[in-house]
Specification:
By secondary structure, this protein is mostly helical. It has one domain (about 20-100). Helix content is about 60%, strand content about 10%. The protein contains four helices and two strands, in the order αββααα. Strands 1-2 form a two-stranded antiparallel ribbon. A hairpin with a 5-residue loop joins strand 1 and strand 2. Helix 2 crosses helix 3 and helix 3 crosses helix 4 (about 90-100). It is globular. It starts with a helix and ends in a 7-residue tail after the last helix.
Length: about 110
């Protein structure tokens, strides 16, 4: 299958302009913002949706109903926890990135 040139250019432009920024705001909460290509974004949302489905609804109404954004934040955290828990390289890489950014590996 041949991909039209304008689609190749658009996909390449999206790939080149993909970015992510992670920082702490004044109250210590992490702010994570990103621009992903169509394919990257669809992959991430597919993974987050699958995690949300697997986790199911909150237990017996003991906690307030979560918004979609809160559920996606929980799913993103679960995705990170799973990656670190299942790969030594993931854990080693996470520690290395924190040290390179001036943080402690235990933060």
């Amino acid at each position: 299958m041949t991909i039209p040139k304008n689609l190749k250019t658009k996909a390449l432009a999206q790939e080149i302009t993909s970015s992510a920024a992670c920082y702490r705001d004044d109250d210590g909460m992490w702010v994570i913002r990103g621009n992903l290509s169509k394919a990257e974004g669809e992959l991430l949302i597919k993974a987050l949706d699958a995690i949300q489905e697997q986790c199911g609804p909150a237990g017996e109404n003991k906690t307030p109903k979560k918004t979609l954004g809160q559920k996606r934040a929980d799913a993103l955290t679960s995705l990170a926890e799973h990656y670190i828990a299942t790969t030594q390289e993931g854990l080693r890489g996470a520690k290395q990135r924190r040290v390179q950014r001036g943080g402690s590996p235990r933060n």
